[in-house]
Amino acid sequence: MAKDIPSIHALDKPERLEDLLRQDRGDDCLGCRIVGGGAFLGLAAYSYFSGHSQLEKQQAQILASGSRFGMRSRRLGINIISLSLAWLGVWRLTK
């Protein structure tokens, strides 16, 4: 019974961060990773295609409005959002 109780010296020693992170990492199952990663990748594809579709439909109105944000900056914004979501999907699948 006394062998199961850790010494005071062992309790004062802090645990290594790498060990704690390794223990915490095992909470995620494969199915959760696949569903989560697939959701992010699907959202990235939807964002990309629907965003560019809406830009094409409203291109004449955007150009006629004289806004300082033209077509190029709006396309860039859609691409950045889509790439960010795709990166999150890949990260979710691998981590």
TrEMBL record:
Keywords: Membrane, Transmembrane, Transmembrane helix. The chain crosses the membrane at residues 76-94. It comes from the Eukaryota. Residues 28-58 form the Distal membrane-arm assembly complex protein 1-like domain. InterPro entries: DMAC1-like_dom, Mitochondrial_unc_protein. This is Distal membrane-arm assembly complex protein 1-like domain-containing protein. It comes from Chaetomium thermophilum (strain DSM 1495 / CBS 144.50 / IMI 039719) (Thermochaetoides thermophila).
